[in-house]
Amino acid sequence: MIEVSQKVGAAARVERAAALDMWLTSLVPAWPSGVALVAFGGLGRLQCAPHSDLDLILLHTGVPGIDELAASLWYPIWDSRIGLDHSVRTIPEALSVAHDDVKVALSLLDARHVTGDRDLTGQLVEAAAEQWRRTAVRQLVRLREITLTRWKAHGELAFLLEGDIKEAAGGLRDVGILRAIAQGGLADTMRPAVRAAHLRLLDTRDALHATVGRRVDRLVAQERASVARMLGLDDGDTLLRRVASDARTITHALDDGWRMADRLRSGRRRGADGKPQRRPVARDVVEQDGELVLARAAIGARPDPSLSLRVAAAAAVTQLPIARATCEWLAAYCPPLPAPWPPAARDALVTLLGAGLGLVPTWETCDRYGLVDGWLPEWTRMRSLPQHNPVHRFTLDRHLVQAAYEATAFTREVGRPDLLLLGAFLHDVGKGLPGDHSTVGAPIAVGVAQRIGLPPEDVAVIEKLVLLHLLLPDVATRRDLSDPMTIRAVADAVGDTTTLDLLHGLARADAQATGPAAWSDWKGRLIADLVRRVHIALDTGVLPAPPKPDPLLVAGPLPVVHLDGDRVAVAAADRRGLLAAVAGCLALHRLDVLSADASTVDGRALVEFRVQPRYGTPPDAVALANDLRRAVTGDVSVTQRLRGRALAARPGATHAAPRVVWHREAATDAVILELRAADAPGLLYRVTSALDEAGAQVRAARISTLGTDVVDAFYLVGAWADDAERDKAEAAVLGAAGT
């Protein structure tokens, strides 16, 4: 059993490779002529992580007894529990497999002699390199397809909280492709910045292996702090930002490499005079060989400060990349923008943000060359800033750019599409600073809006959009929309229908840029309903009338159970504990409650729930209806079954203690008790049962799930002016949430 160093760094990786070479050589007492052991992968590159697998070829010329020799080599490796990828081949066989399998072709480019016949290894290395140079342009087409499939499965390392350092886009696997493009003579992909990023990612993987004690390439949250300490970094966030920056460097270099390969495959377009064809696409911008470059007049004259933004806008609109030399020239020679910006710069920014599919790649390119810092000094703080809420899929900077992209879907629904794009782009600029990010971000957004030259009335709108960007989703999911006070409060905060429409578009763009868990059809319907009601109030000054009870519930013999998609409605004889009984029954059938409403009409209690299946599979409707009828008529066997289950908090839930917040003047005929706690199956049942036992009457509940936590709002009928009564109810709720 070989012991390998757990140290971090290039020297440690070479030391591990040397130790493995020595051990592998010792496994066969005498190596015959015509046989060589060849390493590729990490061992071939002298980049062995503490717990790397071994990738080996037993190369031979057809000598007898090769199978026995292979067995004497492979079995000790397996016995040592080191992962092994192995093959036994002649040079023609290895080259034939590499010709048909691009991944094998890439691996042979890392081939290195370990022991045995050195001349044989040299023949393979030379032949594999020559074959790659001849076939690289064709092979890269297939390699690109494989790479895109891998990226789709593993995501973008730069924007993931728990990315795979090897397989995700911008990871170590992509550096292998960059080396292959360079070895094929297609492009200078291994520039100093790429090499430095590669070394840092290798160090990160070394530290991750050493910390976990086994081979693992995914940088999970619980290991970040330990890995950061081993690398001499301040904390896990510093590590994430460094990984993100390195991944972006690698991804951008690979984009350049793919383009160069495409250009060589398709050939350069030349005019009749033999010179490259140039096509004007915007003022001072032309297309050449599928890239955007500066017009000659723009280079010769004193540059316009808005030039870099105008080039970026043209690139995003045409979905063409900016040539690397052009980016470098703009970064070196484009003068800084004055304050306020000239109209051409402001118009270019809005065009860039509204360009659609071209926005994100163009923004990434400009950011890699430092152009964005020149436009927005605030960007340095936000670049690669992690967002630790599991609902978010992107770092803060990418989230803002993505929100602007998502907002383009709603620009035709608002009166000021330019302000929607800018509001989406600036809505979270306060994150990463102490305090509520909406409140902190509003003055920052004002400063940006003033600097880019917006008039005062537009600056005020941007300020309001940032300050209120969570208003609609929070109210829609946490408040009773049939309560006139809810509608009046939102109308007073928003002030006019133009701003309301902008906030509606921003809420949808923000949610879609956040990730799948931040949006649902139910949430969309709630927000749309809130917007419709507030529109009526702002347009007419009249608050919408509350909806009438479902006719199916107010007529016929009791109990009434009505199931319709995500709606569960029950009518029963009025009694205490009805809401809790229904909630418990729903939990028993693995249904998560999104909202609950209770009312009394002519002596009968009506409760309506909006639900969704906890694991995606709807329950048996007949069994659910039967259990509901028994529960609402007082059959305790249903809730006893629920109490017999272990209903723990969901995995990943925070360990923070539950908290209660009271809202005394937010409802017409009730006070609102807001519970902030870890999510758990049956939580609503436990809390409503506790409130019932404390003497509280719940007329409505709104359930808002934020990753593994919830913010549940309960409308308690009455004034609740007595401190002792409130303390009793609060203690009951906290006790129920803490179980």
Automatic annotation (TrEMBL):
- Where do the record's region annotations for Uridylyltransferase lie? 1-280
Checking CDD domains in the record gives:
ACT_UUR-ACR-like (cd04873)
Q: How is its activity regulated?
A: Uridylyltransferase (UTase) activity is inhibited by glutamine, while glutamine activates uridylyl-removing (UR) activity.
Query: Annotated Gene Ontology MF terms?
Result: [protein-PII] uridylyltransferase activity
Q: Which Pfam families match?
A: GlnD_UR_UTase, HD
* Record PROSITE patterns: ACT, HD
What are the UniProt keywords, alphabetically? Hydrolase, Magnesium, Multifunctional enzyme, Nucleotidyltransferase, Repeat, Transferase
Which segments of the protein form a coiled coil according to its record? none
* Key word Chaperone present: no
EC number(s) from the headed UniProt entry: 2.7.7.59, 3.1.4.-
Q: Where is the HD domain?
A: 396-503
Catalysed reaction(s) here are:
[protein-PII]-uridylyl-L-tyrosine + H2O = [protein-PII]-L-tyrosine + UMP + H(+); [protein-PII]-L-tyrosine + UTP = [protein-PII]-uridylyl-L-tyrosine + diphosphate
Family, per the entry?
A: Belongs to the GlnD family.
Task: Specify the protein name.
Answer: Bifunctional uridylyltransferase/uridylyl-removing enzyme
Q: Which organism is it from?
A: Phytohabitans kaempferiae
Q: What's the gene?
A: glnD
